[in-house]
Amino acid sequence: MTTKTPKKKVVKTVIEYKCSPLMSFVNRVSAIINSDDTTVMARNKPVDFTRHRCFSSSSTIMYFAFRHRTNTGFEFNSFFSDVGKLKNRISKQALFANGKKLNPYVFRYLTQETSKEFYKSELVKKLNGYIVLAEDGTTIEVPDTPDAIRYYTLRGNGKLSIADQIEDAKRKIKLAMLYDVLNGNIIDFTYNNFNYSGIPMCMNHLYTLKNHVTDDPGKYLLLADRYYPSLKIFSFVEYMGMKYCIRGKKNFYKNLVKEMKSDDEVIEVTPYKLAFKELSKYPECEAYFKENESIKIRVVRHRYKYTDKDGKEAATELLYFTNLSKDEFSAEDIIDLYSRRWGIETDYKSLKSILEIERHISTNLNIAECCILGKIFMMSIFGIIGKEIDDILRNVYMISKAKGNADKYQYEVNTQQMIDVLRKQGILDGILNGRKRKIRNAITTVIELLNKIKVPIRPDRHYPRWNKYVVSPPKNRYRIDGREHAKVKRFKGIYRTVRK
What's residue 156's pLDDT? Predict the structure, then answer.
């Protein structure tokens, strides 16, 4: 079966329509990276990056952000070739010296500044007038070094020995971010000890949204999973004028939920005395409850049916807490809206599997943090471009469907192939050296090749890779044209796939 290709005129029109705003946005990103403010933010010490060198602060930022090879030697050849400066390649020692000078927080600054520019552009996509955001966290491995242990283990809890703390932490950090599920943009991110609560990190991101990204938080809608519902989040979001849709645990306000006569009602929650002590930590929460004795929350109850691992029909009750009105979103709309939160999970998967955020090049903690945070900034830029290409593919599918000749599946861009094409067409050279023609050529080429770098979206398709029983261990290390075979261990006389 041959892939249906849009007519040349349609493709040319799409390129002109999409390329211009995308190119303008990437040009702004280039200007931000090469600005004097970014140079100042990039310094760990005031004397760092003050001399004029061939590998400047902006080059160091670009290297750590867009690094994609398995080791430093291969990356050097690739990076310097992509930016058109292969003859100016530096040594590994010089790179690590620059990496120790680079302040990792510069990547958070760049993420916030590019977000600010993005929401001024024509690229912003909305749902019923709202920009849909998702908040979630994950754990990221850091190098197994004394510095990592000192900074990221369970310190000062008074219950575990140092040895137990080290074993429990496994040299991991807790990473959380605020992600735009419709536009692929990462608005803000923070990291802390791996057992740190996600709620204060979420509050920190909402502060960033309010103070640095937008003057009108009322057009934003927050999605979060069942570990986030709390009076702090609800009252803070209400005070900011935002909307939210957050899944709750079964025991969350269970007495009030039990009194509901239907599956879509408004409950009224009055905070108890002990809760005020926690709420007083945030002026916005305290101010809200000074004006209001209680908070009204709409609860949507949904019975989800599925097939369990034994092949039997099963069901579970899901609760969604929101302040969206029934006029804006019906109960079915709320359920569909929450499903969009999955976009942040796929973004984390891309960070770990495609961009390999946990692949480190040094045991130095400062360099390790630059590697992690740089990849998040990279994911934000390429995420925006990817969502625009997905939008093109979606429009082509809908036009074909209206004409009755649509493909069996909808398609989305293959992120890895898109990044490779952009790099080979000189987007890094364009961003680092401010070459607009290079940026335009890279974006135009990706859009022209959209039928060659797309993959089908197959709903409800999942093949388990771990804890899967196999007849015998694989004979080869790699699958044909694919990744490594899963590791296999013998368990009660049977082989089973394992992660490690």
Answer: 41
- Give the pLDDT score at 18: 65
Going from the first residue of the chain to its last (500 residues), give the mean pLDDT of each consecutive group of 10, the final group possibly shorter.
49 63 92 94 91 85 89 85 85 90 95 94 92 94 76 51 52 90 95 86 92 83 93 91 93 90 92 76 87 92 80 85 94 94 93 90 90 94 93 85 83 92 92 92 89 84 70 75 76 77
pLDDT at residue 21, as a whole number: 87
pLDDT at res. 2: 46
Identify the pLDDT of residue 225. Answer: 94
Nearest CA to 431 among 16, 6, 7, 31?
A: 31
User: What is the Cα–Cα distance from 81 to 75, expressed in whole angstroms?
Assistant: 10
Residues β-bridged to residue 300: 264, 320
Give the whole-angstrom CA distance, residue 110 versus residue 127: 26
Q: What is the pTM of this model?
A: 0.87
What's the CA gap between 250 and 257, in Å, rounded?
Answer: 9
* Closest among 381, 499, 493 to 431, alpha carbons compared: 381
